[in-house]
Amino acid sequence: MKPFHFLTNAVRAPEIIAILGRWGFEDLLLQLDTPQFLLKNLVRDKVAHLSTFERIRNALEELGPTFVKFGQIAGTRPDKLPQPLLTELKKLRSHVEPQPFKKIQPILLKELGEPLDNVFENFPDAPVASGSLGQVYKAKLIENGRWVCVKVQRADVAKTINADFEIIGWFARQIHQRFEGMRPYNLPALVDQAYDRVKEELDFRNEARNAATFQMMNENPERVFAPEVFDKYTTRRLLITEWVEGCAPDEIPSGTENARDLAKIGGESVFHQIVVAGFFHSDPHSGNMLVTPDNRICLLDWGQVGQITRNMRFNLADLFAGITSRNPDKVVDTAERISTSNRPINRRKIEQDVTLLLNRNTQVGPSGTKIGTMGLELIHTFGINGIDVPPDYALLAKAILCVEETAKGLDPDFDIQACARPYLIKLNRERWSPKNLFRHNFWPILRAMKSLQEIPSDFQRLIRRFEEEDVQIKLHHTGIDGLQDTFRNAMNRLTVGVVTAALIIGSSLIITTGVRPFLWGYPAIGMIGFMASGCLGFYLVISILRKSRRDR
Predict the structure, then answer these.
(1) What is the pLDDT, as a whole number, of residue 207?
(2) Which residues contact 56 (CB under 8 A, 6 or more apart)?
(3) Residues 409-437: tens digit of each pLDDT
(4) How many helices (H) and strands (E) does the chain have?
(5) Residues 6+ apart with CB under 8 A from 196
(6) In terms of C-beta density within 10 A (0-12 exposed, 13-18 middle, 19 or more buried), how is residue 474 classed?
(7) 100 with 405: CB under 8 angstroms?
(8) Better-scored residue on pLDDT, 12 or 52
(9) Where does 180-296 have alpha helices with state H?
(10) Above 60 in pLDDT, residue 551?
(11) In this structure, are residues 139 and 124 in contact, taking their beta carbons and an 8 Å threshold?
(12) Which residues pair with 130 in a beta bridge?
């Protein structure tokens, strides 16, 4: 992202400052480098009854779609943010006014490359849905007569997102620099990662590829599916899929045989995506699902997915085993294996925190703590203790929580552990099968044996070079570049000081001689020497002061 400047965001910046002030964040604004002219007319609403995290959520909603999108993405990072804030971010809902069709039509025409009448029958002016990135229309294709879902990117959305993320990034950097207690959360890095994810979502071709990948790996296409994508018309700013009729899962009467069947099918599909395919929908809540009239589940919005490798899945199985056996030592061992950082950790402290978490959630399942909730809390525990897990694990925990909540709405007795158990058993069988062990260890063992065979010849070559006195030892000192520059600058200043002192002494001697010509009644050579030494001394003092100010 580009660096943020208030002058280049003269319209948006005052609006953001005013909204933050209304939601009770004027104390924060006063502690940051916020220009004073933006703080003159702050008006604070009566928000004392709300918690800090509630005020953050309300401020994000009022700030608009980009900030809501950022909050939703940040809500998938339990390793970086505290749980109460994640709970509030989960409530974020984007209320976006649709853009008029006259703004959307030029984008449609450009992406299609031909008039609308050549592709659709009577394309509607009003969208059926409007989001922060795009608008959705229901139309009918001329070529095959099928009803389709036309998702078009909003006009100037990329420009708006870039400008808003510059402002978000500025706030994150200021908070990171000025509040020591916030530094462990590394907000600037969190903003950069969220910005990268939003940029991915801006390219609708990614969503099309994700849906196609799921269809290819789907084990039960007769019951669970993604909308068919029409690649012929899909571009970076336009996505056309089949139109799927259906209702949201929460509209299905709870506890019926049909509802229990849908809960079981949905849960099995998500665990197949996670454990078997390693490619899963990152946000399978009820708003991203449709139940068709023939009782099939359609998963919508494939803009963001999670991906975990085979080894990550094996570690996931170990993590589940450690949780279910209530073994904090095994949980921490697995966490250290999956960590993406090499920072030293306090092993005793993290084991105590994990033990406390396991003891606090003694009952996990239908009548106790949700598995997804516990997974998010566990990832947060890892994060605050210096263990950074891959973001896909956080997406995985969120996906499990979403499907658990949706399934519980359909079937109050839904047990996600029973749903996951067959897939985890299958994963462990695959992991420890002789065939898999042979496949994963044969080539490393072969390479190691080959290296052992080369050791005698390598050793002989080394001895021969010693005998021929052809061995050189190169030493390279690191970290002394700054010392060299400091020494060079000091010597330059010392030289200027010596020259200045010599000019002063020489000029003083010449003035006492009375040698002509005179300047202002004194020998001219002496006066010129005094002026030259004065200039050099003034330059030396200014350079020292400027260097001291830069080093502060």
Answers:
(1) 93
(2) 23, 71, 85, 88
(3) 898 888 888 888 888 888 888 777 776 66
(4) 19, 12
(5) none
(6) exposed
(7) no
(8) 52
(9) 187-202, 204-217, 257-271
(10) no
(11) yes
(12) 135
Q: How does DSSP classify residue 371? A: H
How would you classify residue 520: left for phi > 0, otherwise alpha for psi between -120 and 50, otherwise beta? left
Whats the size of the chain, residue-wise?
552
Written as six digits, the tokens of 85 are 């804030």
CA distance 372 to 404: 7
- With vertex at residue 15, the alpha carbon angle to CA 13 and CA 17, rounded to the nearest 5 degrees, is 70
Name residue, tokens 């005998």.
Answer: 467
Please, what's the b/e burial string for 259-293 (b: 16 or more CB within 10 A of its CB; e: otherwise)?
Answer: bbebbbbbbbbbbbbbbebbbbbbbbbbebbbbee
Residue showing tokens 């980009």: 66
Q: pLDDT of 183-232, one tens digit each?
A: 767 788 888 888 888 888 899 999 999 999 999 999 889 999 999 999 99
Residue type for 471, please? Answer: V
Distance CA 311, CA 393 (A): 13
Residue type for position 18: A
- pTM for this prediction: 0.71
Q: Cα separation of 276 and 427, whole Å?
A: 7
Evaluate whether 361 touches 375 at the Cβ level (below 8 Å): no
Residue carrying structure tokens 């963001």: 304
Asked whether 267 and 416 are in contact (CB, 8 A), the reply is yes
Q: Cα(99)–Cα(84) distance, rounded to whole angstroms? A: 34
Place of tokens 């990117």: 153
In whole angstroms, give the CA distance from residue 221 to residue 230. 18
